[in-house]
Design brief:
heterodimer; A: about 425 residues; alpha+beta; Butyryl-Coa Dehydrogenase, subunit A, domain 1; Butyryl-CoA Dehydrogenase, subunit A, domain 2; Butyryl-CoA Dehydrogenase, subunit A, domain 3; 3 domains; 4-stranded antiparallel β-sheet; 10 strands; globular; B: about 260 residues; alpha/beta; Rossmann fold; 9-stranded mixed β-sheet; two-stranded antiparallel sheet; 7 helices; about 30% helix; about 25% strand; electron transfer activity (chain B); Electron transfer flavoprotein subunit beta (chain B); ETF_beta_N (chain B); transport (chain B); ETF_b (chain B)
Amino acid sequence: MASALKKVTKLSLIFHKCSKDLTAIRRGIGDIWVNGSCIDPSIGLSEEQIQIQQLATDFAKNELFPNMAQWDQQEIFPKDVLKKAGQLGFGAAYCREDCGGTGLSRLDSSLIFEALSQGCTSTTAFISIHNMCAWMIDEFANDDLRQKWIPQLAGMEKLASYCLTEPDNGSDAANIKTSAKLHGDHYKLNGTKVFISGGGDTDVYVVMCRTGEAGPKGITCMLVEKESPGLAFGQKEKKLGWNSQPTRSVIFEDCQVPVSNVVGNLGDGFKIAMRGLNGGRINVGSCSLGAAQNSLQLTRDYLKVRKQFGKTLDNFQYLQFKLAEMATKLVVSRNIIRTAAISLDNNWPNKVPLCSMAKFFATEECSKVCNDALQLHGGYGYLKDYAIEQYLRDTRVHQILEGTNEVMRMLISRDILTDEERKYV
Amino acid sequence: MSALRVLVGCKRVIDYAVKIRVKPDKTGVVTDGVKHSMNPFDEIAIEEAVRLKEKKIASEVIAVSCGPQQCQETLRTALAMGADRAIHVDIDSKDYETLQPIHVSKFLAKLAQDEKADIVIVGKQAIDDDCNQTGQMTAALLDWPQATFASKVEKNNGDLTVIREIDGGLETIKVKLPAILTADLRLNEPRYATLPNIMKAKKKPMAKKTPSDLGVDVASRQEIVSVEDPPVREAGQKVESVEELVTKLKDSGLV
């Protein structure tokens, strides 16, 4: 074992020695050669959308990408940069404007998450979850709650977390057990939520809990503020990726929540949770797009400078074909994500299976693109000096959360197989 | 003195990151399908104008761009950064190929008078033709004082105190208004346009003028004979010793 370790260290030293010459090619994000190419993310967009995309790309390049490795390796949750993102309007992108939301469409918002995630996929994924929570409050909460929370969430001065999954209920979310019992003017919550992005570091928790009967109709959505008596957090989880955002369990022990913090009607919680997730699925899929885009761009540059057998790698047909496959996976993923976003914007009846398809396809294919990018980088791709391995680690979880890709397949096949009227929340 | 009106020139140029290619017929450089953006020095000019407005020194910021239809995209960027309205001087693409700083200066001078501007700010130069002429010629046409290569601008009573970047140091000058400023690199760091401002920019007014509206003859005074790539650098030679180097230099008559 020890000698094997030594070998690895020696190997990485050799890599380091040559890597100096190659560092010059680590550019990526917004590279000019992409403009007008078949992987140009601005193909078919309006002038205003291109401006929005350019803003997010500039932000990714200047504020996120230079820090992405450090945030990952030191597990830093960059609240100051999140605030900067909030000042530009990234905190409540698709909330209404009257309370400080930006009022963008889902398609425009998807462009933002896609562009930002090139700079740091993990941080952008947190921004996207925060946006999903803000939208759920904006869409379903009464005006008092909206006026209290949306302005602060829009500026990202306050941050939000989404609490659905429990230790025993992940995909089977309709049967969650966290209970809320009415005591006069407040509820007392008991139970545990797990895998909560931002848990312990965020200010408000959008919690699904049981106020009534078993099954989906007994679930209610509530806002739980961080200072609430009876609210506690588990240890910070150690994760494969997504290290720039903390993940903890959120524990309720007779946690007091005022009745005025109920979002929507009693029993609407499951519907609200699922409606939020439709958008969440597009958002997280968009985050995979950005990671794949920059992995591909970095790989293209690498192939052009790395020489083996006396010629640069871009001369080898196998690698040319690989690059073509990666580009095609990326563009097809992008197209289905944007179609799904349009389906939400226009409330198409088949939006649920379309969002499911988009999430499942884009997160799986884009992970493959990142993985292929790593392979084409050879040994260098395995090093943390290069961004590729982080894109691969950060996108892996996209296949699991916001509904596993297995649940996505379930929703798609249910839509195809049903002979009844299609019912979606 | 009441708050000032500021006119800012915003040129649409090939993006700084683009690798420039010469057209095969050597009449110019390839612009079709090439990414364009606002001249970076003009971005600094807009930023300065918007800051003057935020400090309540200026009351209105008007962005101007002279060129084909796509210049409106550049103007939308200026509006998103905080300009109040825009004027697009529409030049057809054939005339645009030979448009010179003298023409743009005439447009700016006329617009400065029509719009009753107190300050005209332009970038010190455009990164495509590197002319560094427009600001100076606009000042000459209007017979206004000019403060070029500005790296700091302050208002004192009725005058502007401007720090200029000159060879080997900084020069502080005072100019009376109305005046022309040209922005140097260190004047400020332009902001990101926020999403709400990008959306508001759509609704801000954009006027369109033609050269004849402004009484400017855009007939070309120059003919482009040939546009060529810079010569490719030739390979060097390695020498073994100082003696060999000296001998080679002597042989080729360089020392």
